[in-house]
Protein 1
Amino acid sequence: MRRVGGRSDGAFGRTRGRALARTAFRALRAWYRPRLPLAPHRCPRCRFPAPGCLCAAVPRVRSRVEVVFLRHVSERGRLTNTGHWASLALEGSSVLEHGVVGEPLDVSRLDAAGAWLLFPSPHPPPRDAPPPLRLIVPDGTWAQARRIVQRVPEIRTLPRLAVEVAVPDALRLRRPLVLGGMSTLEAVAAALRALGEVEAADALDALHRDGVALATRLGGGPGRGSPPGSRTGAPPARRSARG
């Protein structure tokens, strides 16, 4: 039997076959999961169990900046997706889904004039750049958000907004994978605060606390602070740009 890289070609083939099978399974799961309906006991708006769901705690938040969430399709229906909570609260916000099989992404609103990206970058925007009119927010795990930026060319060249994590050891539903990681809702609140919209940021921070507290009572124990673990949906806090 011929050997490849210190292994027999048979063992190499089996290893490669298992890897392909895992890739195919993940792709099938990503395609199938978003099509599953919510359980009957879950609120169709906030996704928490009803009665006693999160809806009563969701404020109406007005902002001068239009927020567009570019959500990974696997986050659809997840109770722990804090970007969904933010989209319920922010008037005029919208959600676009990335990765839906057979449904191309509508990119017409992503690179319009005044659009900025909430994502880290080693290159800060020019000092004389006008403030954002629209904020594009990749929403998913850290790895998913990074892939969204890599695979959607319309947003790769947008100016990026720098934010700092407000409370590094705050309770979160998913433990951040990277140092300075935070939830999507926290990142949006930090961005609005950096743009001078303190009242809107405070309302979103309060919503985050209420959502984490409710999810914790329901049994989804939160994680604190920084690595190791999984990320709630926002990139690390700062590398000159978005967090």
Note: The CA atoms of residues 89 and 217 lie 22 Å apart.
Protein 2
Amino acid sequence: MLLLAILLAAALTSAPETAAGPSIDSILDGLSGGTTDEDEAAPSPPPVTTDTPDVYDARVRSVADRVEATQGLLDGGWRLEAQGGEALYRFQISDRGFGGPAEGVWRDVRVKAFTDGAGIIDYVGVNAGELMVRFNQSDPADLVVVTARPAGASWSGDLWRKGAVTKVVLKKR
């Protein structure tokens, strides 16, 4: 039915009009697939590409690099470790860059039960060169705050939880 309406609309808009409107013959001709000089012309062939696999791969890499360049500093997966190397948390952060807010999720790798050891990050961002990640572990009173500064390819700082401070390193996964 929709196809019939589309064909009828096409016939009405492209049919020659008389003072009384389009002729019934032109409408029926449009519905029955009447031919025109354009219809009889051979269809044009698809465009030919001369890309070699190497050129194609380079183009794909270029597009991927441009997309990655628009992502913010924090975008991706992160691992938070105590300075001794013990894994504490994993973060997955979406940072669209351009000064927009970053957002993410956290997981406590020491907790086996997913419902108790994972959640949404309340705040993640960098202000005046200092990174802050803030979330509630098990309830609103169980606040976890990580602050860190750049240290080479990672971030180094402190984790505050339940009155205790732990020296930590945040690394890109």
Note: Residues 76-172 form a domain with the Lipocalin fold (CATH 2.40.128).
